[in-house]
Sequence to fold (522 residues):
Amino acid sequence: MEQEYDFIVVGSGIAGLYVGLQAKEHFTVLVLTKGRIDECNTKYAQGGIAAPIGRFDSPDLHFRDTVTSGAGICDEAAVHLLVEEAVDRIGDLIQYGLVFDTVDGEISLAREGAHSVARVLHAGGDATGAIIENTLSSLARGPNVSVLENHLVTDVLVEANRALGVRSLDCESGKVKEYFARHVVLAAGGAGQVYRYTSNPDVATGDGVALAFGAGALVSDMEFFQFHPTLLYMPGVPPFLISEAVRGEGGLLRDVSGRRFMQEYHPDAELGPRDVVSRSILSEMERQGVNHVYLDVTHLPAKRVMARFPTIFRFCLDNGLDIARDPIPVAPAAHYLIGGAKTNTWGETSVEKLFACGEMACTGVHGANRLASNSLLEVLVFGKRIVQRALAGEKWDGKVTTDNDLVIPFTEVERARDVTSSSDKISLSRLQKLTWSNIGIIRSSKSLREADLQLDLWNREHTPEMNRSSLELQSTLCTARLITKMALLREESRGVHYRSDFPQESPEWCRHIVFKGSTAQQ
Ligand SMILES: Cc1cc2nc3c(=O)[nH]c(=O)nc-3n(C[C@H](O)[C@H](O)[C@H](O)COP(=O)(O)OP(=O)(O)OC[C@H]3O[C@@H](n4cnc5c(N)ncnc54)[C@H](O)[C@@H]3O)c2cc1C
Fold:
């Protein structure tokens, strides 16, 4: 008889590890992760984690900034929990041994775009994510918790809409095995690899959303993919983010001729919302026929730049750029998946005993545009609630939507049934090229329809093999289809979703689009 765990957690970023650590105090836990334990988005987070702890801050102010950024469709009950439980969850990280940066004995707070006060706690200057990941992973072994690396979860085992466990591929031996648990928590991260240019590492292939969708869970808000305005643009150099906090410290955006331009696009100039800054940069790049702009910190004291951004400073220097003397070439890139498996405020999905946490979950706190540094906080607040829910043993009620949500069975939005075959065979680079040009920062009915047709064709033709790259391609394809179909339906522009054919926000669309997956869709 197979061992049954209390918890199976899929993923070992902050979401998987934090839930695992909280759960192991009371339950047996198995963490499955498809690469090494520290291969994840988390370790690249630079800016930090938002929490209303400052003297001039309050949960109310943090709430207001979050819902303003979310452009009318934040789940306000979830945002209240986010800001009210923030301080306690920061306390959990400190208890786990995380040391935040301080000034004169007090936690040092940075200001980032669209926050009305300095509110972002950081560690190691700009190494917050790496320090969190190291701290949590060093605690994640021992009694009650096992971690299996190189185990890629391929399916959630579901019977009568109840999760029983997962099926997983051991990427080293090639063996497939099933694991059973009383609670299954998907914490499999983001999907930046859907796009050609991204700040996300290779593991971010949308597996979590694909797993939830394949299990029949409701998936929501996929049209909202946040693009970060400033990824380092140096051909041949691996993707590297230049944190928003650099603009918070006074970094200025300039076009290739050295002209500052952001004040022409938004009253907060460089500190405007990410979507506005990304589109403004794109429009300057298109206007001048170039593929980058500059982020300039050369007017700031060099010592301050080095002390505050040691990781960025070092990375650029190692690649031949001294940012204290020369402006940094940057361009926008796919950054954060706002949508995902729809959950209630206890992290429950619409499948019983299946929970979702972290970037792949859609708790509703980000609305149509995530406020910078709210994502790490979201993980802690809702990760804790998953374990609290399991401890309380409350009955699952299956309700994760409201009457205002537009819930559509996925079969109703599938296309390409009449078309015989695709001229191009699918590959990750072909898919990424299509998504970047057709479902990226600026979309239209034409670009979305083209993408939709091609993606549906690829989906019909692609039969995944039992190896990591083929399975990841399948997840990326599933995620891209969900983004495209929701973006087509949303005939307006809101938050990070920008339609050139519907450039205004429409009151009719002050609602969420939700697709119902089914095991047959995969
Ligand atoms: C460059 C960068 C900078 C950022 N800066 C900030 C910031 O300053 N503040 C902030 O709040 N947020 C920031 N973010 C966002 C934030 O870091 C992420 O949203 C958050 O870390 C996601 O955590 P997670 O645990 O959900 O996912 P991840 O950390 O990505 O972990 C996902 C895990 O799931 C595993 N996995 C995936 N698929 C499978 C599968 N099929 N089977 C088994 N395991 C699987 C992966 O291997 C990985 O271990 C940043 C993101 C990036 C990329």
